[in-house]
Amino acid sequence: MHGPAMSGWLLVALSTATGAYCLARLRSNSESARASAGGEALMAFGMAVMALPAALVTIPARGWTVLAVVFGCGALRALWSARTAGHHLHHLVGTLAMVYMTVPMASGGMQAGHMEHAAGGVPLVTGVLLAYYAGYVLRTGATLIPVPPPVAAGPTGGAANAATPGWGARPELTLACRLSMGIAMFAMLLTL
C-alpha cells in the first residue's frame, strides 16, 4: 500500500499513534468515548500494518486474507451498531474500504504482497471512496477550527469554571484521531 518508503513510515507512525490513543479511550469513564474506540483502534492498527514498507516485511497472501476477514467482521459489527448510532455508518464505510483494499492483496494480485504500481481496485469504487474520504476529512477538519467558548459570569463576576472532561473524553482529540485516520485512508486509497 505504498509509494516511497518515507510516506509508508509516516503512515505507520500516524496510524500507530492514533491506534494507541483509541486503545487509551477504551479506559475512559465516558460511555460515548468507549463506544467506538475499539473499532477505531482496529482500523488504525490495520492501516499501520497495511502501510508497512514492503522492504521491511512481506505479508503472505494468507496474512492479507486474515486481515480481510477481521475487517469483514468489523464491518458486520459496525452494521449492527449502526442501528442506534449514526457514527457507526462511517465505521461501516471504513471497514468495507479496508476489505476492499486487502482483497486484491489476498488474491496475490500485488507485487510482494503490497500495492506498489499495480491497479488493485475498481476505478469507480476507488473514486467514490476517495470522494467520501475527501469530504469526510474536510468536514472533520472544519469542526476542529477553534471557536472561543462563551464567557459566562459566575457568582464572583469572573468566568464560570465548567468541569473539563477527562483526556479520554475530549471530543477534539477524538475528532483529531478520526481526521488522521481519514487522511491515512485517503492516502492509502490513492495508491490503490
Secondary structure layout plus pairing:
Blueprint: H1 5-25, H2 31-35, H3 37-51, H4 61-81, H5 87-106, H6 123-143, H7 171-190
Helix pairs in contact: 1-3, 1-7, 3-4, 3-5, 3-7, 4-5, 6-7
Describe it for me?
The structure is a single chain. The protein has 192 residues and is an all-alpha fold. It has one domain (5-145, 167-190). The protein contains 7 helices and no strands. It has helices at 5-25, 31-35, 37-51, 61-81, 87-106, 123-143, 171-190. Mean pLDDT is 79; it is low at 110-118 and 157-161.
Name a few traits of the molecule.
192 residues; 7 helices
Short description:
By secondary structure, this protein is mainly alpha-helical.
Q: Whole-number average pLDDT? A: 79
* Residue fraction in strands: under 5%
Total number of helices: 7
- SSE string, helix = H, strand = E? HHHHHHH
The portion of residues assigned to helices is 55-70%
The largest β sheet comes out as: none
